[in-house]
Amino acid sequence: MTGQLGVTPSARSRVVTLMDTFNLFFTPQVKDLIIRFTNEEGKTQYGDGWVKLDPVVLDAYLGILLLQGTMNDGRCNIQLYIGKAPGGAAEKNQGQRVVLDLVEYLGNQSGRNVTTGNFFTSLTLGEALLKKNISLVGTMRKNRKDIPSVFLPSKSRAAFSSYVGHKPDFTLVSYVPKKGKAVVLLSSMHFSQ
């Protein structure tokens, strides 16, 4: 290599914010190519099931990759869901598998807590995490078999009312934000002895 080392004067003059720096590498033309070819391949692989990639989602994805690279000391603890493979069978207990994969690097004595959304949260996940000394807090889907029917949405429950249930190591809460709705939360972090 010849020439002066470091950032060129031209590049320095165009950088005011972090996003400006990012855009030096991922120009609008580069992003357009990524989006175009990703959508073409997605349509080929998944047909009408493909959800088009757009500039906002691309920026979010690239941002996650960069953040992971700077904050995660090389442990690549991320899984992207790209849908099931063409002709492939649906995976059973996918949510539980994903969470257990993502916490594997913590080992069995981290004493951490995992917070999950309703796709992931289940009693069996909570039990598996407790074996690793990791607690769980998360909302639950109403169709989970481990939720007693009294905790499910009902027109007979008053708005702003709550039910709380306990079993060893777990608390289940059902809150009614408005009539006919219920938010169900499972926690192994909050329980009575």
UniProtKB/TrEMBL annotation:
It holds the Pfam family DDE_Tnp_1_7. InterPro entries: PGBD. It comes from the Eukaryota. Residues 76-189 form the PiggyBac transposable element-derived protein domain. PANTHER family: DUAL SPECIFICITY PHOSPHATASE 26, PIGGYBAC TRANSPOSABLE ELEMENT-DERIVED PROTEIN 4. This is PiggyBac transposable element-derived protein domain-containing protein. It comes from Ramazzottius varieornatus (Water bear).
